[in-house]
Every structure is written in structure tokens, then in C-alpha cells.
Amino acid sequence: MHEMSLAEGMLQLVEDGARRHDARAVKAVWLEIGALAQVEIEALRFCYDAVTRGTLAEGSRLEIVDRPGLAWCMPCGTQVPIERRGDACPHCGSHQLQVVQGDEMRVTEIEVA
Amino acid sequence: MCITCGCGSDGSHVEGDVHEHVHADGTVHTHAHGQGHGHEHEHEHEHEHEHEHGHGHGHDHGDAAAAAALGAAHAPGIAPSRRVQIEQDILARNDAIAAANRQRLADRGIFALNLVSSPGSGKTTLLVKTIEALQGRIHAAVIEGDQQTSRDADRIRATGAPAIQVNTGKGCHLDADMVRRALDRLAPADGSLLLIENVGNLVCPAAFDLGEAHKVVILSVTEGEDKPIKYPDMFHAADLLLINKTDLLPYVDFDVDAAIGFARRVRPDIEILRVSATTGEGFGAWLDWLERGVAAARGQRNDNVEALRRRVAELEAALGTGT
């Protein structure tokens, strides 16, 4: 259940951002979560609701933007889609892959009032 | 409610934040956030409709349009809600503390390892045997992470090495701040080896940098050889794989070559050593690996000492010329 730690990290970023903008409430939070980030989205929503209770982010809406996994295949010399770490290149079957996208966990924007 | 500052809301303002704003009638109004806002207004509000002034200007109009109109008059030109950029990693705070830990360890020439595995892979026995084998050569200290009890730290302390138990309670992993606090109390010796035994869990600890030089993942032959592809993030995050309990290979159905193949799928350049903490098999290579790491950490520190001496001299000079 490291989603609880992630939700606490989110709340901190959201509260800091809201305070910097003199906001009294947070209406919505935009998150980028990569397909390779090992985040259980439903667990994260549940934990976020729990940790924001009684804060200025209580009741805020989570807007999650999925980021598909992408890796650089060394033998092919090109970018290929992957669903998880350890996947083979869909073209050549190699595991010499360098992940270039899909492991992010970022708060990108908030809507404040 | 005033949309400039939200006064009259539920008190979620930052304490001590003083705020000033101008009312539609020209009155300048200053208050500290966090105050109850139960003060009297000295000016009169002029509204076309009647309502209760229960407190401050947290007007309860019961009429959204009137409230919006009043809000607009209160603070012209400011939209009721707006989107602002954050663009920060959720783990930014942990990563910042981890970076500070890493710097602190580097400054002291301490070689720190974050040992991760499933429960029951033999981490604590491996640590005990490692500390005993290094005695007289390398000073080792241990941070033990477990949800409950100090049993593991007690086992380490029995070797004479300093150890601190961190109980994570409901948590499933150590984080950088727990390690920072443990370092405050443990105060490992300069040029020593710091072994951080994470909570037995092949998922969550992968995401949390503690400030270590390397993650070392331990897979015992009593587990499935396919764990590297079942838990790819952990095996990807590790720089060294220890295949432990090799003394049991004759009795179990564990394919070492397959395990190595799976590990290399998720981390093609992972280093791999086979060990048995019970018989000492493979320990020579493991101890060599540790000694190389300790020597490198000490070497880097010595390189930095000269730079630090220069810095101290600069600061002393600055103090000497100061008022």
C-alpha cells in the first residue's frame, strides 16, 4: 500500500501550490501517472480521499492522465511501446530496452478557488 | 464570502499570513489568516437585499447569483477558480531528503546499501554473517526496517555492530526521512559500511530512494526463479542480485540460470553473485564487492577533503573580515 505515501506526497504538493496562490480551496488535481509507475489508480484515489479529509483539498477531483510506456530498443534503434518493465521489444524480441516514458508520477496542475 | 482571501471559510489559511483587501465601498481591510474572523465591521455594507451578518463578511445569501455579483464587486476581475501549474514529482520530497542523505553519507565516506527482498529471503542472517566476516577490516552499522518488533536489530547488535530498528507501523517500506532520523541516532563511523535492511516487500521499496549507493536485491533459492519478471521494478532498480541459500539447491527445484536470465531481462547489466549465508559459499566475492565499494566511498571522500579544507579557510577568512 505505498499509494498512501504517494497520496501524502500529492497532498503536500497540492497544499504548497494552493498556498503559493493564496487559494482557499482546491477543486481539482491533474496527475500524470505512467503505465510503468506501479501505481494502483483506484487505491490511489481511495488514499487521496482519506488524506485530504479536513484539508483545503477535501473533495477535490482527481484527473489522471495516463502516460503509456515507451522504451528505446538498442538493436532496432527506435522507440517501441511496452506495457511493463521486462517486456521484450515487439519487433526484434530483445530485452535491451531503455525506458524513455511511462515511469512518471507527477502533479501537473491544480484548479484552485 | 470574499473570493480574494476566502475569509469566512473553514480556517484552512496559513497561520500568520496577513492579508489586505479593499471592499467595494473603499474600506481597506487587513486581517491575519487563521484568526477567527469574528471581528466587527466598522463600515456599512449597502446591499439591495436583506441578509444576516452572522460574522465578518461570510455572507450567507442563499442566492448563488447574488453571491457571485457581490464577489465580483468585492474583487473585480478575479475569476472564482483558476488552474495553476505545479509540475512536480509526487516523490519530490522523498527524493530531496534522499539526496541530502546521499550527500551526508558521501561527506563521511560511508558506503550505504539498501537491501531489499521478499520476507524470508535470509537478509538478516546474511547481514549477521557479513558483519562477522568483515570484523577487524570494515566497520559496519545497520538500519533495520520492519513493521513491528526490534528482533532483527537485536540479532545485529549481538554481533557487536551498532544497529537501529525502524518500525514502519502500517507502512510497507522505509522512506528517506526515516533513514535521515535513523542516521541522526546511529551516527555511523566515517569510512564505514551502512547496511539498510528494508521491509520485506518486493513492490513498494522500489519507488523510495533512501540515499543509498546501491539497492541490492536478495532472492533465495526457496523462492520462485521467476520473481524477477513478476516484480520487475525491484529487480530493475537493483544494481546487484544476490542469489542466497545456494546450499539448498540440491533440495529445491530452482533453476539458477533461468533466474539469472529473468533478472537480465529487466536489468540487462545487473551484477549477480551466488551466496550461502549458512555455509559461507560465495562469500569471498560478496565481501570483495563490499570492500571495493567501501574503498571507493573513502577515496571519494578523501578527494573532497581538500576541497572542504579550502572552503573552511574561505569561511574563516570571511568571518575574520566580518563585523
Explain what you see.
The complex is a heterodimer of chains A (113) and B (323). Chain A has helices at 3-20, 41-52; strands at residues 26-34, 61-67, 69-73, 78-82, 97-101, 105-112. Chain A is an alpha+beta fold. Chain A has a single domain, classed as 2-Layer Sandwich (hypothetical protein PF0899 fold). In chain A, the strands form two sheets. A three-stranded mixed beta sheet of chain A has the order 2-1-6, with helices on one face. In chain A, strand 1 (26-34), helix 2 (41-52) and strand 2 (61-67) form a beta-alpha-beta unit. The longest helix of chain A has 18 residues, at 3-20. The two termini of chain B are 51 Å apart. In chain B, the strands form two sheets. A seven-stranded parallel beta sheet of chain B has the order 6-5-7-4-8-9-10, sandwiched between helices. In chain B, strands 1-2 form a two-stranded antiparallel ribbon. Chain B contains nine helices and ten strands.
Strand order in the sheet with the most strands of chain B: 6-5-7-4-8-9-10
Give the oligomeric state of the chains in this entry, treating copies of one chain as homo and distinct chains as hetero: heterodimer
Number of domains of chain A: 1
Tell me the Rg of chain B in angstroms. Answer: 30 Å
Rg from alpha-carbon coordinates of chain A: 17 Å
Unreliable residue stretches of chain A: none
The first-level CATH class of the largest domain in chain B is given as: Alpha Beta
The major sheet of chain B is characterized as: 7 strands, parallel
Number of beta-strand segments of chain A:
6
Shape of chain B: globular
- Element-by-element helix/strand order of chain B: EEHEHEHEHEHEEHHEHEH
- Low-pLDDT runs of 5+ residues of chain B are 1-74
CATH homology superfamily of the largest domain in chain B: P-loop containing nucleotide triphosphate hydrolases
Overall average residue pLDDT of chain B: 81
State the helix count of chain B: 9
